[in-house]
Amino acid sequence: MNRRDHLMALGAYVSSMTLSGTANARFTSPAAPGVPASSLQWVTPEVRGRGLSFHTFPSKAVGTEVSFHIYVPSAYTDDESRRFPVVYWLHGSGGGLNGIARLSDHTDRAILAGKVPAHLIVFVNGLRLGMYVDWANGKAPLETIIIRELLPHIDTNWRTIATRDGRLLDGFSMGGYGAGRFGFLYPELFQNVSMMGAGPMQETLERTPRASRMQVTDLLRDVYGGGQDRFRAASPRRYAEQNAAILASSSRLRLVIGDQDETFENNRDFHDHLVRLGIPHEWIVLPGIGHDTMGILTALGGRHWAFYREAFAEVRV
Prior knowledge:
By secondary structure, the chain is α/β, with parallel strands linked by helices.
C-alpha cells in the first residue's frame, strides 16, 4: 500500500485511549469511545495565555470549520522579515485544552531565557479521542485535516520555515503516538519527532494498560473498522519498517517515558523495535515519573530544550 492509499484508507492510529485521564488529569480528561458524530467538537472553546491566539479554518474534508490555537513569540513581531520553525503539538485524549496555556507559558519563558530558539507552536485539535487517523466510519478524517489542510494553512498565513527541518512534531500520550505515526509516515514533511508517554504502542489493540476491554472494542470498531489488520497497517511500527532507511539517515527522533508510566513496557518494546530496524533515536527513561505531561517536562529539564535546539540548529531562526 502506497502513501496515498494510507492517507485515504488510513489505517490506524491508536494513541492514547489507553492514556485517558488519570495521572495527568491536569492535561486530559477521561474520554468515552464510540463518540457519535454529533458530539465531535471541531471548534473548541478558546484558551487564553501568553502569546496564544485562537483560529479556525474551513475544512473540506469534514465540511465545517476546525479550530486550533497557535503560540507566537514576541520575536515574531520584532522582525517582520524573519521566518520561524514550527512545533506541532499533538495532545492526549480528552482534548488537551487544559494544557495549552501551561505549555505556551513554559515555552515562552524558555525562549526569553535563551534556552531555545524562538519558534511557533500549533496546538492541533485532535478531538477528545480522535486518534489522529481518518476514522474507518468516515466521521473524523483527522489525518487528512491535519496533513492536507492545517499544515498548508499555517504555512500560508504565518511566516514559517516551511521545510521538513523547520518542523518538529511533539506530543504526549495519544499525541505521542500521533507524532510517531505522522513523523514516520511523512518524513518528507517532518524531520524532528518527539514522542512522550506514547501509547498504545503494542502490536495489536486487544487490551491496553489504561482502558477496559469494552472501550478497546468500541475504539477498534469505530476508528479501525473492527479489524486488527487495519490497526497494524497504519501503526508507527509498520511505518518505521517501511521507511527505516530514510528515518535512519535523515530524521531526528526522541522517545521519552517515565518508569512509573503504565505504558512503559509497550514503549520499551517499541524502542527495541527501532533498535532492531537500525533507526537511531534518543531513548530517555525518567525515574519516578508516571503518565504526566508536566512531570515529564520538569524531569527532562534542559534536555527537553536541547532536543529542540539541535532540531532547529540548521535553520535560520
